[in-house]
Amino acid sequence: MRIYKAVYRPILTYGCESWVLNKKEKRRIGAMEMKYLRKVKGVNRLQRHRNEDIRRELEIQPIIEYIEKRQLEWWGHLMRLPNNIPTRTIWEARSYGKRKRGRPEETWDDTIKKIWKRRK
Hints:
Elements: H1 2-12, H2 23-41, H3 51-58, H4 63-80, H5 86-92, H6 108-119
Helix pairs in contact: 2-3
Protein name: Endonuclease-reverse transcriptase
């Protein structure tokens, strides 16, 4: 599991602090993670082991929880930054203009609010 934590997870989650994931992307990331964990454990899908059981035996938290934790940590860093730092200025910047037709895309702020509400 040291390889998973040292190599695989950082590669899979590089830059995850700024991601806005929809349900489809979360499922795909979770599936990639489980494919790797099943190989590590030596079981295949035909053996019908539950994902929760595999994670519990390997003592691994779901990758989506890890991503959400990293996003909240990054939000905390942004909140602590002074207002004159470029990173904070860029984060607070808002674009003005016409949006595309249809349902509005979820913003990073919306994602953080959802994670925060779920974890309270």
